[in-house]
Amino acid sequence: MEVQLHRIRVRARAWGLTAAAALLASLAACSSGTTAAPEDAKGSKGADDRPVVVSVTPKGRQAVAGTPVTVTAAGGSLTSVTVTDAKGGKLAGRVSADGRTWTSDRKAAPDTTYQVTAATRTEGGAPGTTRASLSTAAAHKVNKVDWRPGAGATVGIAQPISLVFDNPVKNRADVEKQLKITTSNDTEGSWGWMRDWSGKDRVDWRPRTYWKPGTRVTLDAQLNGTDSGTDGGWFVRDYTTTFAVGAQQIVKVDLDSHQLTLMRDGKTVRQIPVSGGTPGGDKRSWRGTAVLMSKEGTINMNSETVGLGDAYDKMVDYSMRLTWSGMYAHAAPWNARYFGNANRSSGCIGMSEEDAAWFYGQVRPGDPFEIDGKDTKGTVAPENGFGEWNLSWAEWQKKSALR
Fold first, then answer.
1. pLDDT tens, position by position, 290-313
2. 70, 159, 202, 211 from 156: Cα distances, Å
3. Does residue 242 sit in the same domain as residue 255?
4. How many domains does the chain have?
5. This prediction's pTM
């Protein structure tokens, strides 16, 4: 029995091999030497219709701000991306040439939640939509800005745009890149960094030459989401201001002849006898170009505040500030005998009550005072008011963080 069973098994195995060989030969003859492609594992959809995988950075609920939002598609492409914050503000951006990546133009701001909607297309052309969100951590420290001129102002032809920061700005180039100036006539200009008279960091934008009358100017400081650097903190808002340039007015002050001349559109409007700072000491006036910073009216002037001891303490009318260090043009009736013939003030440019009243009504902040004189205490520095006009254009350009 055991022998017969073995023979049966051998015959069955031989028959199976023969049948398999015949079947393979038949298949080879039908395929003409090629193998048919198998059906896709996902059935009739095909690999090209697999869903697009979308990823967003930065990630999480306490993400670090200060980097652009990036949306990436794997297994397909992006057709559009919308990123909005809780207030409805949108982060603009653009899709890369290959359609795989979208990057925001602006950086993610601190303490902000963004909703991301990405429209996609699979490799096979099927549309899809992916939604995601991200939230950035709050700023550990916030930097703020005080700027001039104010919105809607009409200023003189020498008025710079000036931003003074509450906290130090170490990342000056990063900040400067976010400051956009637009003018109605493509005015050439440049930013310049300095330490303000107050001791704070400051950046000014001045034209290459005085503004053309009628120019309209817009500052768009897109600072939200920008890091000031060590000890400075984050900016958490943008700043915008628009102003216009008025008539061409230049005030020329000759301390040697003791005369002030108001020029408008190249013509003399009026000449006023004045008395400048007393020669030979700390009471001398500054020379160079100073810019009228503000019209302050009647104010108390105390010599102790400018390091001149107890020389004076009085109320002064028609006060027009020219420097942070305390040089003004103003009414000085107590000095009447010196107007037009001697410099006997404590550094200011004094004139009669009548002349001061008229002059005060003619000038505006931003008008340049071009001051000449042999015996002065030096040239107005850029940080002492708006003394940047005393630098050549090449010197001023070097003060930019992007040069």
1. 999 999 999 998 877 777 776 778
2. 44, 6, 21, 8
3. no
4. 3
5. 0.83
